[in-house]
Task: inverse folding
């Protein structure tokens, strides 16, 4: 197993290097002189001044040198300064991390809490009316884009019923109920698709697990159905689900960007958006690298967990 | 027996992707008429298939439907209609906040969606399919280079990559959107094609072709590629649903197709500003969007489960 993990680690580091390299190169090579974003238009005529700024910011060094320097800084947490606000990028990102993080955690928790019981029931009662109803609802859940769901929620709960705020964010340190109110709609808008995916996967796994011989022998021993379901069937069936949840957490990065924009939540995604509209290259670059790295690392972690929990893979390694 | 779907080799990668869960591929028998398949469907699936046919037809002929040719025609500029009109004989679905006909917007929005999804799928099928088939059959350095590309593009979350691309290129529009997303979608296609091609390459008929001295390019074209494509076509339906959602999402966020152009997502965003006053203009594009995604999902589920039982006899 050690060798397997070591191999994966090497691959992880290689992918991270690649991602940073591609992002850096794309930022540096594409048209548009970053100097223009740094100094006002009037000053751009002044050749000497422009040259001085270029030298100061190190735009004149060879690309590879600049990549090395940038990567070295990035590893130590210095992603450069925003072209627009002039503040260090990392300082703008840190207070936003817990917001996006909370949104993702609540979404996944909702997905598990609702998806797993539904999946268990509809897998156990395959073909029953309840199973068909659950499957139909899941099909719908998968077909509604999260922003549409968010809009419907806003219309019903914020505009018609006035129960929840349509936009904005209350930090948990300011008010726990306020925080719950601000996370509720965005998390539900994101969680519906998760619930649908989790329950579908668990359902089909439970169905195939229940056809195994050891389930038959457990039944023959006279064990209760419920005992078999939870002790014999759930564990082997949850392997795929675990992996899937991990992969979906990585996929949620995209979802949170959309939902943060819709609900005006001050998270990473919203900052990325404002940076895109302000043409703040450094900020876009920094956030792209950060989010892509998070994506790669989460996916790799899922791989590790999979190796750790699946006895078959462990043994083969 | 070799693994015809290539799914096993995907799993051995340790990558239990959503794909690894999709059942056996179906063989598209073009000779067997689509009409028969249509008649075998239960009625909800048939309704979904009909909706898809309708949407695609309407999208293709959008410019020739009488009364709906111009989605940007603003009647109130000429004293013809008001803004936010309710449905009437003249405007079947009413007008939006700048007095454009909502039905015309929905019809032309379908066209935007179709162009985007079709373009991206075509790129995925052609480039991804060929690269992957060749990589799995030829192996060696070529495969290494191809898989390098796949690894890099799979390392970026789609929306993050897209935002990065439009910022750096400093341009928006249907074209750049299609190209950027196509660049990403090629990766999973290549991966599936390679996995399939690897397992097809082990089959007896390939060995037989080798034994009688068939050249490698000829084997690739005559034996490998025809056996790789059915899975890719099946996969395309799943991707199509994702692409329709993606186009709507990007346009909704204001980073997809630029404003006057009709797009379901863009129109939903326009209508969102008046959500507290008049919610109606938002409803037709939302219904069209959800119905289309739902239909694609339902039809692709039906095709897969039915094809699985049919091709098991092979």
Result:
């Amino acid at each position: 197993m050690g060798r397997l993990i070591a191999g994966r680690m090497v691959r992880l580091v290689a992918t991270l290097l690649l991602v940073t390299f591609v992002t850096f190169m794309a930022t540096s090579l594409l048209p548009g002189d970053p100097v223009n974003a740094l100094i006002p238009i009037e000053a751009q005529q002044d050749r000497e001044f422009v040259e001085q700024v270029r030298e100061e910011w190190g735009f004149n060094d060879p690309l590879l040198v600049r990549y090395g320097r940038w990567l070295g800084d990035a590893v130590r947490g210095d992603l450069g300064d925003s072209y627009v606000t002039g503040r260090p990028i990392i300082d703008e990102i840190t207070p936003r991390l817990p917001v996006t993080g909370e949104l993702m955690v609540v979404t996944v928790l909702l997905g598990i809490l609702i998806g797993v019981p539904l999946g268990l029931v509809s897998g156990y009662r395959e073909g029953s009316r309840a199973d068909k109803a659950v499957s139909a609802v899941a099909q719908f859940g998968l077909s509604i884009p999260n922003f549409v769901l968010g809009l419907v929620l806003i219309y019903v709960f914020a505009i018609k019923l006035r129960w929840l705020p349509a936009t904005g964010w209350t930090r948990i340190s300011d008010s726990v109920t306020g925080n719950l109110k601000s996370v509720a709609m965005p998390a539900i808008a994101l969680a519906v698709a998760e619930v649908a995916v989790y329950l579908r996967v668990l359902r089909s796994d439970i169905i195939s697990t229940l056809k195994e011989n050891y389930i038959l022998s457990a039944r023959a021993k006279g064990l209760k159905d419920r005992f078999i379901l939870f002790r014999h069937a759930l564990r082997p069936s949850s392997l795929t689900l675990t992996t899937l949840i991990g992969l979906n957490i990585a996929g949620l990065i995209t979802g949170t960007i959309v939902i943060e924009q819709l609900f005006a939540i001050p998270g990473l995604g919203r900052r990325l958006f404002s940076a895109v509209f302000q043409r703040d290259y450094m900020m876009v670059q920094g956030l792209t690298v950060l989010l892509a790295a998070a994506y790669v690392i989460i996916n790799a972690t899922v791989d590790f967990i999979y190796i750790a929990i699946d006895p078959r893979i462990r043994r083969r390694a | 027996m070799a693994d015809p779907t290539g799914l096993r080799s995907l799993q051995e990668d340790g990558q239990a992707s959503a794909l690894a869960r999709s059942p056996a591929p179906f063989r598209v028998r073009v000779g067997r008429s689509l009409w028969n398949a249509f008649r075998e469907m239960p009625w909800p699936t048939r309704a979904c298939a009909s909706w898809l046919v309708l949407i695609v037809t309407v999208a293709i002929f959008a410019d020739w439907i009488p009364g709906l040719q111009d989605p940007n025609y603003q009647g109130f500029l000429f004293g013809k209609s008001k803004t936010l009109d309710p449905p009437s004989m003249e405007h079947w679905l009413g007008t939006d906040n700048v007095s454009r006909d909502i039905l015309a917007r929905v019809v032309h929005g379908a066209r935007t969606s179709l162009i985007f999804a079709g373009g991206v799928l075509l790129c995925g099928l052609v480039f991804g399919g060929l690269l992957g088939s060749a990589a799995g059959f030829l192996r060696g350095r070529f495969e290494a280079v191809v898989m390098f590309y796949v690894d890099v593009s799979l390392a970026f979350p789609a929306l993050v990559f897209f935002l990065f691309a439009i910022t750096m290129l400093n341009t928006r529009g249907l074209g750049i959107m299609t190209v950027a997303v196509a660049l990403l979608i090629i990766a999973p296609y290549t991966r599936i094609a390679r996995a399939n091609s690897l397992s097809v390459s082990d089959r007896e008929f390939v060995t037989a072709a080798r034994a009688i001295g068939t050249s490698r390019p000829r084997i690739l074209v005559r034996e490998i590629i025809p056996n790789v494509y059915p899975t890719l076509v099946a996969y395309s339906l799943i991707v199509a649903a994702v692409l329709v959602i993606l186009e709507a999402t990007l346009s909704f966020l204001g980073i997809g197709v630029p404003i006057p152009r009709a797009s379901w997502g863009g129109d939903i965003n326009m209508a969102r500003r008046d959500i507290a006053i008049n919610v109606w203009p938002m409803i037709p594009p939302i219904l069209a969007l959800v119905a289309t995604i739902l239909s694609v999902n339902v039809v692709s589920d039906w095709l897969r489960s039915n094809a699985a039982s049919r091709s098991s006899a092979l």
